[in-house]
């Protein structure tokens, strides 16, 4: 019963964040949709920030599950790696409408409350990429290299391009057009990088 109510609150909060933005959304807005009093809301979540953190971590877990399913598909090594990062970019784009509205204090609170959880999920995510790289080496598609290091290089490459295109102000929302440019540039950069991992 408690879990069902939590799910209803999270769904209602996502609707509110999408409609009003994170800053303008209040606990009252969320409670109104769910049909709970504001006081009853605090039985499930301490504040709006905690609701947001839960939404993000749940979405991140879903992303990791989808990435795992994606690499099981019968794709070439090149396509698996590119698809892996495209899926991550789609997820980041979906989260960007809230992330631009979070204050520095709220980000610090997020790190204190959810940082460990996010780090743990992040490790799961990276293991998926390392598994792809290792299989490509085992199948002689790629030459031998340190899988963990190369995995880190790939994340640095992709994150570097992504951050280069970030809006100039924290309040500016990422547009679909800019997101498409990022996806194309990352795809091109990954293809060049992947070429270097193949035997001569």
From TrEMBL:
* Gene3D superfamilies for this protein: Homeodomain-like, Tetracycline Repressor, domain 2
Q: Which top-rank group of organisms is this from?
A: Archaea
Alphabetically ordered keywords of this record: DNA-binding
Residues annotated as DNA-binding are 26-45
Q: Does the keyword Membrane apply?
A: no
A single Pfam family it belongs to is TetR_N
HTH tetR-type domain segment(s): 3-63
Recorded hits in PANTHER family, A to Z, give: ACREF/ENVCD OPERON REPRESSOR-RELATED (PTHR43479), ACREF_ENVCD OPERON REPRESSOR-RELATED (PTHR43479:SF11)
The protein, known as: HTH tetR-type domain-containing protein
Q: Which organism is it from?
A: Candidatus Lokiarchaeum ossiferum
């Amino acid at each position: 019963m408690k879990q069902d109510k939590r799910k209803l609150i999270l769904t209602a909060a996502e609707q509110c964040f999408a409609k009003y933005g994170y800053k303008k959304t209040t606990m009252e807005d969320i409670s109104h949709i769910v049909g709970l009093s504001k006081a009853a809301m605090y039985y499930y979540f301490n504040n709006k920030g905690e609701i947001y953190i839960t939404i993000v971590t749940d979405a991140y877990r879903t992303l990791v599950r989808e990435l795992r399913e994606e690499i099981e598909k019968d794709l070439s090594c090149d396509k698996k790696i590119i698809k892996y990062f495209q899926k991550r970019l789609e997820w980041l784009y979906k989260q960007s409408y809230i992330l631009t509205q979070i204050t520095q204090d709220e980000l610090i609170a997020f790190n204190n409350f959810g940082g460990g959880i996010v780090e743990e999920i992040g490790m799961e995510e990276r293991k998926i990429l390392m598994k792809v790289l290792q299989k490509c080496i085992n199948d002689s598609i790629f030459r031998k290299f340190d899988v963990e290091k190369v995995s880190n290089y790939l994340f640095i490459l992709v994150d570097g391009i992504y951050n280069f295109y970030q809006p100039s102000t924290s309040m500016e929302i990422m547009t679909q057009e800019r997101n498409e440019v990022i996806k194309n540039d990352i795809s091109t950069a990954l293809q060049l990088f992947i070429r270097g991992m193949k035997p001569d």
